[in-house]
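#structure-requests
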Amino acid sequence: MNRNITGGRKRVKTARGRTAASTRWLERQLNDPYVRRAKAEGYRSRAAYKLLELDERFGLLKGSRRVLDLGIAPGGWSQVVRRRSPGAQVVGIDLLPVDPLDGVTILEMDFMDDAAPAKLSEALGGAPDLVLSDMAANTVGHPQTDALRTMGLVEAALAFAVEVLSPGGAFVAKVFAGGADSELVAEMKRNFTTVKHAKPPSSRKGSVEWFVVAQGFKGRAADQRS
């Protein structure tokens, strides 16, 4: 009898050439129910369930026609969009190579590249009603620095969303523990009807990630300064 079927925890011995940290990561992957579920349901990563859970709570994907996926790799979020809104046009961008996805246009480039916004808008062919950002800066091991670098990506993603979103649209971004800072939240509130923080159940226990969900884009006029 295969004991793994009964839910027994799998353990991984530290192999030659593998660090203790990588062994712990592998063991966590093998015992993660979301990883197993993703494989069974054909999603490229467990991150797909974070968007699924956010969609259940906020109704992000209902009626979506044009969606931008910033930080698309490996493609789990775009898979969710295509499954829940089969008619949606989706454009994603990432520094990392991403295997092709049916119905998704993928740009392999840095979102912070000056040419990226125009290329994204051109590929989408119209104003998006949803901008998703699962971007996070490469970590350097210093929590405050890592948080600041990722927040810089969130700020850039928000500025872009405000430029391109259609009225009534939504913006979702990954942030670190503590959520978006007060200035960023204030900027979102100027441009969106509702702004909320959420931590999906599929976020790993102990993870510092949260998501900020801004809905009801007011239109460009809301961002004009007197």
